[in-house]
Amino acid sequence: MEHKEEYNWTIEAKASLFDLRINEIWAYRDLLWLLVRRDFVSFYKQTILGPLWFFIQPLFTTIIFTFIFGNLAGISTDGLPKPLFYMAGITAWNYFADCLTKTSTVFKDNAGIFGKVYFPRLIMPLSIVASNLVRFGVQMLLFLLMMAYYYFIGAKFNITWAISLFPIIVILMALLGLGAGMIISAMTTKYRDLAFLVSFGVQLLMYATTVIYPLSEAIKKYPAYAWIIKYNPMTPIIETFRYGFLGEGSFSWESLGYACGVTLGLLVFGVVVFNKVERNFVDTI
Amino acid sequence: MPPAIKVENLSKAYQLGQIGTGTISRDLERWYARVRGKEDPFLRIGESNNQNTRSASDVVWSLKDINFEIEQGDAVGIIGRNGAGKSTLLKILSKVTAPTTGKISGKGRIASLLEVGTGFHPELSGRENIFLNGAILGMRKKEIQRKLEEIVDFAGIERYLDTPVKRYSSGMYVRLAFAVAAHLESEILIVDEVLAVGDAEFQKKCLGKMGEVSKGEGRTVLFVSHNMTAVLNLCSKGVMLKNGKVSFFGNISSTIEAYHNESQTSSLIIPRKNKKVYITDFYLVNDQNIKTTTISLHSYTKFVIKIFSKVAKQPVNVGYGIDDIYENRLFTLFSKFYGKTYSLKVGENIIECYISSMILKPNNYKIKIFVGNDFETLDYYEDGINFKVVPRENVFLELPDASQGSLVLNHYWS
């Protein structure tokens, strides 16, 4: 009898680029859940306000944005109540930005664990996206509370059919952050430069996304440069989000389709690169 | 039955020096070579990993063409000096890093313990950490649930189960961490030197648990340690690595012996030319008449000294003081005890002394050498020469521990 057939695992120098070992990730699904729990529990251990801290950051950012961009700079909000407009942008943007920045340092942050024990490395970025989802959920709650408040005081906004696209938008944001984050994380294992770029790059990117201004306003004021904002895949996502919940925003199937395409491309590339780097990064980090 | 683990032509290269901006051009060069189907210009085949010499290229082979097979149920000790490639081998086996060339195939689930408590979060309670750590090691939640009681029992932390582990004493922390790992169900267990932590009692318990694992349940164990007694107790086979290559593979006691013979060159004494009489060489000779620094327990041992004398000198006594590593004098061999004096002639003098049985328990020792007489010390080697006593197979089930003295006498029970 041939011996080889009895082996059920091999470790080899070269592995196929597309050998993603999805079944292995499935076998470790409990770990994914426990990591999410760890992140959530350890976040508010030994704090007085506990999960309330999830509220404080978007709340204060909204207040600041309302004062600076809304009142001082007087940037249009498409006729929506200013805090509501900013809160919508911040909530969505924060989720994407958190996914991106946390994922982009996943190798560096977990070098200790990764260097000592094997588990499918993809579990880590997935757990980051999932635990940020918990945070996003809490912040969405805050946004909904604010919507309810403005509804009762009779502010002008209306929910449209596009709200049904909400699950797709969340998935798009998660995967976009995940894909881009994994590409950066794979590159930073050798060249640390990118890590510096990410922290302020994400901030800059926010200004190239329609977080603090509506797309219509950008097209009106800078018709020559609006394409930069338009081709930013986060723009259609946030515009759709606003259009769905608040009834204002430039929604089109083409731009959403474009965002889907970019997300998918980045994700596939990200997973492949991540899987390639994952095998040897311990030696270079 | 096919072997549980089969390692074929395994090599691993590491890059020395800075990894940073300088590497981008090198990466491009590598990539270009690959595109043309050429060999990687930075991985020259045939260089071995000798840490003492500088090599032309800044790539080292931490492992080079390793081949061995491990049968199912074997407990294999991997020994070698620091930097011999032991940890690299374990890292590759536990899939933490990939080999540069070669292949390992095997069957069964691998549990690898390169460190205890990997992924422990200080803020989480003992219970939460058991689950988290178990999951990191590859256990399913149900499996941990089933074993929770056993794990808590083994670690002896029942009272603190719901306290954050940052409040644990370091001993409790290690016990808990090891307990989780020890209860992992796997066909292959890989253990790095994790037992260096924890108190003696717990170390014994862990070794016991591991022994149970390999002997009782037919699991394959790979164990790296510098604690030769632990390796000898636990393992049946040994792999000795040297400069990234397998230099010995066989049963454990011969592997350990090979390691000792290898690891210590007989330390020569610095000549002291300003003295009239000085020691030029000293070494031990074992029962096979081989120069060595490793002596088996209860074996014949000869002490040979070479003394150079510029003048004829007499009477001269030679003495050896045998100390343990803490500088406690264990015994002294002194020619004066027997009323034996030597007359040194001009030139080299060789003086031999033997004992019929080395009764020191397996450990490291030092010999200090005295040459002189009642009136003057002609030469005294104070730094001491290291030697090692190693256990002999199948005689003693257990050797005296630290509280039971340093000597092992043959004794007979009715």
TrEMBL record, chain A:
GO terms for molecular function: ABC-type transporter activity. The keyword Transport applies. Coiled coil: none annotated. It is found in: Cell inner membrane; Cell membrane. Residues 49-277 form the ABC transmembrane type-2 domain. GO terms for cellular component: ATP-binding cassette (ABC) transporter complex. The keyword Membrane applies. PROSITE patterns: ABC_TM2 (PS51012). Keywords: Cell inner membrane, Cell membrane, Membrane, Transmembrane, Transmembrane helix, Transport. The chain crosses the membrane at residues 52-73, 133-153, 159-182, 194-215, 255-274. It is a multi-pass membrane protein. PANTHER family: INNER MEMBRANE TRANSPORT PERMEASE (PTHR30413), TRANSPORT PERMEASE PROTEIN (PTHR30413:SF8). Belongs to the ABC-2 integral membrane protein family. This is Transport permease protein. It comes from Pedobacter petrophilus. The lineage of its organism: Bacteria, Pseudomonadati, Bacteroidota, Sphingobacteriia, Sphingobacteriales.
UniProtKB/TrEMBL annotation, chain B:
InterPro entries: AAA+_ATPase, ABC_transporter-like_ATP-bd, ABC_transpr_TagH-like, Bact_Polysacc_Export_ATP-bd, P-loop_NTPase, Wzt_C. Keywords: ATP-binding, Nucleotide-binding, Transport. This is ATP-binding cassette domain-containing protein. It comes from the Bacteria. Residues 43-268 form the ABC transporter domain. Pfam families: ABC_tran (PF00005), Wzt_C (PF14524). Belongs to the ABC transporter superfamily. GO terms for cellular component: membrane. SUPFAM superfamilies: P-loop containing nucleoside triphosphate hydrolases. GO terms for molecular function: ABC-type transporter activity; ATP binding; ATP hydrolysis activity. Transmembrane segments: none annotated. It comes from Pedobacter petrophilus. PROSITE patterns: ABC_TRANSPORTER_2.
